[in-house]
Specification:
The structure is a single chain. The two termini are 36 Å apart. The radius of gyration is 26 Å and the shape is globular. By secondary structure, the protein is an alpha+beta fold. Helix 2 runs parallel beside helix 4 and helix 3 runs parallel beside helix 5. It is built from 13 helices and 22 strands. Helices cover 30% and strands 19% of the residues. Strands 9, 10, 11, 12, 15, 16, 17 and 18 form an eight-stranded antiparallel sheet that branches. It has a two-stranded parallel ribbon with strand order 1-8. Strands 2-3 form a two-stranded antiparallel sheet.
Length: 578
């Protein structure tokens, strides 16, 4: 992002064979701008160095004859990922070993240098081989495979075959019948046909999918549970860095569900889901960031994901000011102001709604503004907006903008920008007073969806309460309303309902929502839908194309430490804590 191209660095010392010839090789895939760059620095015992680089002397083979494109495994509205029809009869087995005959391979074409290179800001994604938890012979050389949990992975097969024998592989997150994989609700097509060669062969995807179940049809004779693995990709994660156990088995399960989701979906940048969008959104990252902080001592991936969004903003309007909130969280949890210092101008100039503040100190803008200011979201999916009435003065957007301006003042203090600090602190207070004066309905004891609205969606009260913007004299009536409505929001809005209840001292209400087993609850996802990662919606009836791998639905992962136990940094880097 921001015209920067990132490269990964690996220590390959343990991969080298001393006193033997070594081979360097790669498998690359991209749909555009096909360029590759490699450099290895060798440090000898006497301190001298040698550099090996990719250049026109490298030999290449077009992989399309091996990985035959059988259509899109991704989603046509968001990204293309080929269904890999591997043809083992064309695969150059041994290409990555010394002595391979590459005489018929073409020399690489030299292209323009890749500009503005910088090292990866995060740790390298790791690969793990995971065995099935259940393996069922369905007869007629068809097999059902179940992994313990949903994975971001490919499939590896180690089989004995005959040339031309074709094996069908189906993957999915759900079952349509016992031992039968359901096609993905998201529109992804996880079906491939692999063609075998004679003899033993080990074949695997180069791309990744999201699945828990597999069907292997027309497998070769002798296929069994020891011949299949999920090739799992994930960011390094320390399981021992956090733990939670209580007398409530449902709450324990919810914690583990959310913890595994953060662990299992993190690669090199946060994404909405690896099934469909495969892109980073501000609102998603806000929740994922807080959950990750509470689960692992990991700050690089959250920071990179936040900084990515400074230059790659998404369409929802209120997601813009959330970027400032995430920037402040980064500083509060790390104590490191480097990112604030480097990106202050971006936060100040691109991430507020100050251009739309009217004479009453309310954000007043079109519901569907052009350019950088996007479309009002409030919640997603749309079915979970509690009938929110969209007006030009939107309570939710005003709440997020007010909190962002407050944090912008805090950031200015940290960076010793006294004039800015005074301006933003004063502005934040005027915005807060305006929200309480013009958007609160004293007769109903709750907030309206907008100044000209007479509707009171749960979001209009929960979001200001969660963000600490409600006048003390009004907070109890607002909290009563939030408590009374339960989880009348989505898995994203759940973060703010839980925060609102804990902020108002209604911890029992928050606990009741987290350990519920039915309705809009994480218990329903686990016990009724069989989810092992948190989902895009509480139920398919709310969003028919939902997926089962959304880290931004993980609110309990941070609400339990921050709310139930009240562990919050009061000063940067936890130098003082609640």
């Amino acid at each position: 992002f921001n015209s920067v191209h990132r490269y990964n660095t690996f220590d390959v010392t343990k991969l080298l064979r001393p006193d033997h010839e070594n081979v360097i090789g790669v498998i690359n895939y991209t749909t555009l701008d096909k360029r590759f760059l490699f450099q290895m620095t060798i440090i000898y015992a006497d301190g001298s160095t040698q550099t090996v680089q990719s250049d026109r002397t490298w030999k290449t083979l077009d992989g399309e004859q091996v990985y035959r494109d059988q259509g899109n495994a991704g989603n046509s509205g968001f990204h293309y990922a080929p269904r890999e029809g591997i043809d083992a009869t064309k695969y150059p087995f041994g290409w990555n070993k010394p002595g391979f005959d590459d005489a018929e391979w073409a020399y690489a074409k030299e292209k323009d240098a890749i500009e503005n290179l910088k090292a990866s800001a995060t740790l390298n994604t790791e690969m793990h081989l995971v065995k099935p938890a259940r393996f069922v012979n369905k007869g007629n050389n068809s097999y059902f495979v179940e992994f313990e949990k949903n994975v971001v992975a490919g499939i590896r097969l180690d089989v004995e075959g005959k040339a031309g024998h074709q094996v069908e592989i189906r993957l999915g997150e759900e079952l349509s019948a016992p031992e039968t994989v359901r096609d993905m609700r998201t529109g992804n097509t996880y079906r491939e046909v692999w063609t075998l060669r004679d003899g033993r062969q080990v074949l695997e995807n180069f791309g990744y999918r999201v699945f828990r179940y597999a069907e292997i049809n027309n497998a070769p004779d002798g296929f069994d549970k020891d011949r299949i693995w999920a090739v799992v990709l994930r960011y390094p994660f320390d399981d021992r860095a956090s733990g939670f156990s209580s007398s409530d088995p449902v709450l324990n399960d919810v914690w583990e569900l959310c913890k595994y989701t953060i662990k299992g979906t993190s690669l090199d940048v946060y994404v909405d889901t690896h099934t469909r969008e495969r892109r980073n959104y501000e609102g998603d990252t806000l929740v994922t960031q807080l959950s990750h902080y509470c689960l692992d001592r990991e700050f690089a991936l959250p920071r990179y994901s936040v900084e990515y969004l400074y230059f790659r903003p998404t369409w929802p309007a209120e997601f813009k000011p959330q970027t400032i909130m995430m920037a402040w969280h980064d500083y509060l949890y790390t104590g490191n102001a480097d990112s604030l210092r480097r990106h202050y101008d971006v936060l100040k100039e691109k991430k507020t709604f100050n251009a739309f503040i009217n004479d009453e100190y309310l954000v007043e803008k079109p519901v569907n503004a052009r350019g950088d200011y996007g479309r009002d979201l409030v919640d997603w999916p749309a079915s979970q907006r509690d009938g929110y009435d969209f007006t030009t003065i939107n309570t939710v957007i005003n709440a997020f903008n007010c909190k962002a301006i407050e944090y912008l003042g805090d950031i200015a203090v940290v960076l010793k920008k006294e004039d800015d600090a005074g301006f933003y602190k004063d502005l934040a207070e005027k915005l807060r007073l305006a929200i309480n004066e013009h958007l609160y309905d004293p007769q109903a004891g709750r907030f309206k969806d907008g100044k000209t609205s007479d509707h009171h969606a749960l979001h209009a009260s929960a979001f200001p309460l969660a963000l600490g913007l409600v006048d003390p004299g009004l907070s109890q009536s607002v909290a009563d309303y939030v408590w009374s409505r339960g989880m009348a929001v989505s898995v994203y809005g759940a973060q703010f309902v839980l925060d609102a209840l804990y902020n108002a001292g209604r911890g029992q209400g928050a606990l009741n929502l987290m350990n519920a087993r039915d309705g809009n609850s994480w218990g329903h996802l686990m016990y009724n839908l069989g989810a092992t990662m948190v989902c895009e919606a509480w139920d398919p009836s709310q969003k028919g194309n939902m997926s089962f791998s959304h880290p931004w639905a993980s609110a309990p992962a941070n609400a339990i430490p921050r709310g139930l136990f009240g562990i919050i940094p009061l000063e940067p880097g936890f130098s003082r804590i609640q």
